[in-house]
Write a structure and sequence with these properties.
Blueprint: H1 6-15, H2 17-23, H3 46-60, E1 64-65, E2 71-73, H4 74-81, H5 85-89, E3 94-97, H6 107-113, H7 122-134, H8 139-150, H9 154-164, E4 174-180, H10 184-195, E5 203-212, E6 225-234, H11 247-260, E7 265-271, E8 285-291, E9 296-305, H12 308-312, E10 320-326, H13 327-335, H14 340-344, H15 346-349, H16 356-361, E11 363-365, H17 372-388, E12 395-404, E13 407-415, E14 430-434, E15 437-441, H18 448-453, E16 455-460, H19 461-479, E17 483-491, E18 499-501, H20 503-511, E19 516-517, E20 520-530
Parallel strand pairs: 1-5, 15-19
Antiparallel strand pairs: 2-4, 3-4, 5-6, 6-10, 7-8, 8-9, 9-10, 11-18, 12-13, 13-20, 14-15, 14-16, 17-20
């Protein structure tokens, strides 16, 4: 698959979306080329890693995994929170959808549509519009149904919809009483209602999933979507004593953290000042722990007994302990991150900064020999060049005599100018990555800091040029040339010595104002003569 000009495609699509869409199908055709694959293992997002560890901890402690309802009617929030529901609903997202329009077919509309199908029946068109209105035809299928009535393709049907029925563009979302879950608790009450009386006590359940909260803005400590790792235990004998702590709840919290191996110390519970009405009075607590080695205290969990008032509305008649962990908060504790946005969305909030190892991995040969003979030629050029770099010119050194591509060839390193050397002063320079930059350094005269602390890429100017020459000799043999010369003089760019840096590597170097400095006089000539 080739690369395309995104600005040009976007510009063309503004004036002719359908035509551009059709034409760009060729851009997504691989034409039999093999897909490039990487051998390195994939990475795990820190939120995914935290979820995995929490799931494992809950399961080992005997909790059954549950998926709680995500869509909650506002009436359920009123049942759970009582008078507090008004404040809670201010922070939830209500779901909205586009209404199905009731569209009539005027003579003008019919006349416009008959341009697509002169035999168009008004009744059949009105039937499709009516079935769409009543929901018998889903939105995904509407264009296909319309194209059948118009006896045309989907593209033309979409164009007809856009030009003949402006009513669709004028539609505005209409809110419903359905909300996105803002607390896992809202889902727990529905789940408990469904399971209560169907399972023997104690019932131990956990759920790790997204919640949504209508924050005014996202900042270093708040996101509009977060993961709650919540559990409930339904049992007959829960005892809450503020002086002794919440023994049952604290025992679960401590066991979870023991499984997580985060290293939280000195955990203790404090009464939560929020006093949510879905908890029983004086049973809502926050759990804090101390982080080594600095000893800073962080909130790690919340817990409480659900209110008998709220539970009774769902037919539950036994105490229910609820414990909740914020996954993102735990991931921040595990990683030491200070900004939740950078932790969750590093692609948006973290500046591109590759390590020296990652930069080195992004430096490759632009061209390389593809045959055994070609690789031998490259090795011989490198070996003979190193041994005779300082030979006084004019001089010629044979590096290879044999065949390539079925043709006999003699390959030589050549310098015809008087009173100079076989190779230029920079030909034996090596490529190092150091502190985010790329440098060409002489092993004998270069910066000691780069040589001592930098990462050797394994490339020298001569090894890269040798690979280029060998590749060109292979091509010259195949094309029937009688002779071929590869010559590299002064070097300014990596491409001058047959090196390629990935776009990501270049972007990383530039974003940090680092250097790509491989300037130098290489002055190397390789000549191949075929017979």
């Amino acid at each position: 698959m080739g690369r395309w000009n995104s600005k040009e495609v976007a510009k063309t699509a503004k004036t002719d979306f359908e035509g551009t869409w059709q034409n760009t199908k060729n851009l997504a055709t691989t034409r039999g080329e093999k897909t490039k694959k990487t051998n390195k293992p994939g990475t795990v997002h820190q939120i995914g890693a935290a979820i995995s560890k929490l799931r494992s901890a809950y399961i080992q402690l005997g909790f059954d995994e549950t998926i709680n309802p995500l869509f909650i009617e506002d009436t359920e929030v009123h049942k759970q929170f009582g008078p507090e529901a008004v404040a809670v609903l201010d922070r939830v997202y209500f779901l909205a959808g586009l209404p199905r329009p009731d569209i009539g077919v005027s003579e003008k509309k019919l006349s416009e549509l008959k341009k697509f199908n002169p035999e168009l029946s008004k009744n059949s068109l009105e039937q499709v519009l009516r079935e769409y209105k009543t929901g018998e035809i889903e939105g995904d299928d509407f264009i296909a149904e319309l194209s059948q009535v118009l006896n045309t393709d989907d593209t033309s049907a979409l164009k007809a919809l856009d030009t003949v029925f402006p009513e669709f563009k004028a539609l505005k979302p209409k809110a419903s009483n359905m909300t996105l879950r803002s607390h896992m608790t809202s889902g727990w009450f529905l789940t408990l209602q469904a399971l209560y009386g169907k399972r023997e006590l104690p019932i131990q359940l956990f759920s790790i999933d997204r919640c949504f909260r209508r924050e005014q803005q996202e900042d270093c400590g708040h996101l509009r979507s977060y993961h709650s790792a919540s559990c409930v235990v339904v049992d007959e004998s829960f005892t809450f004593d503020e002086k002794q702590g919440i023994t049952e709840g604290m025992d679960i919290v401590e066991q979870v953290f023991k499984k997580l191996r985060i290293g939280i110390k000195s955990m203790h519970a404090r009464p939560d000042e929020k006093r949510s009405k879905y908890y029983a009075p004086d049973t809502q607590f926050e759990v804090f722990g101390t982080l080594p080695p600095g000893g800073s205290e962080v909130e790690v969990a919340t817990m409480g007994l659900y209110s008998p008032v709220a539970l009774s509305k769902y037919g539950v008649e036994h105490p229910v302990l609820n414990i909740g962990f914020g996954v993102e908060r735990l991931a921040m504790v595990r990683s030491g991150a200070a900004d939740i946005r950078e932790l969750v969305y590093p692609q948006f909030y973290t500046a591109l900064a590759l390590s020296d190892t990652e930069i080195a991995a992004g430096i490759t040969l632009a061209r390389a020999p593809s045959t055994v003979e070609g690789r031998e030629i490259a090795d011989k050029i490198l070996s003979v060049g190193r041994s005779n770099a300082a030979a006084v010119s004019p001089c010629t050194f044979e590096v290879y005599k044999g065949s390539v591509g079925g043709r006999d060839v003699v390959v030589s390193l050549v310098e015809e100018e008087n009173n100079t050397r076989l190779l230029g002063p920079a030909a034996l320079n090596k490529i190092f990555v150091f502190d985010g930059g790329v440098y060409g350094v002489s092993p004998s005269k270069g910066s000691s800091e780069v040589l001592e602390k930098g990462l050797d890429t394994g490339f020298s100017y001569l090894s890269a040029v040798a690979a280029l020459a060998a590749s060109e000799i292979e091509e010259a043999a195949a094309s029937g040339e009688s002779a071929h010369t590869t010559q590299v003089k002064g070097v300014k760019l990596p491409s001058d010595i047959n090196l390629s840096l990935t776009e990501v590597v270049v972007r990383s170097i530039n974003s940090k104002n680092k250097k790509i400095d491989i300037r130098g006089p290489v002055f190397t000539t390789i000549r191949a003569e075929f017979s």
